[in-house]
Amino acid sequence: MSKKLEFFSGTGRRKRSVASVWLYDEKGEIMVNDKPVAEFFSGQEETLEWVKPFHAVGVSHPQAKFSATIKVYGGGIVGQVEAVRLGIARALINYNAEFKGILRSTGLVTRDSREKERKKPFLKGARARPQYSKR
Q1: Are 8 and 23 in contact (CB under 8 A)?
Q2: Which structural domains are found in the chain, ordered by start?
Q3: How far is Cα 13 from Cα 4, in angstroms, rounded to an integer?
Q4: Span 2-30, pLDDT tens digits
Q5: Residue ranges of E strands in the chain
């Protein structure tokens, strides 16, 4: 019989991206949409971004202490990696409430609410108007 693992969850959002994070307190793999995190976020900038919450609380190698299942959808790669970062930070707060002050001071718990403004009818974009012609 397999024992039921305790998990700590967090949801992160950025632009159009939504990430659901389930963090387990055991050594293992961090999977994003059923792929290893290094394969899903292959760039160096993305890797540095998603590990920020772990580094802030003093975990230099996240896979050595935690395993995680992350589901992310919507938006582009930048929005997705920032949504994952916020979701991990919220899951770490559920894991240990003392981490909240550390994560708050580094700005990792703040939700970036900026979204693209919708295009309006008869305009070229959200605010840009067609060129005015006097004659």
Answers
A1: yes
A2: 7-105 (3.30.230.10)
A3: 28
A4: 567 788 999 999 999 999 999 998 888 99
A5: 7-14, 17-24, 30-32, 35-36, 67-73
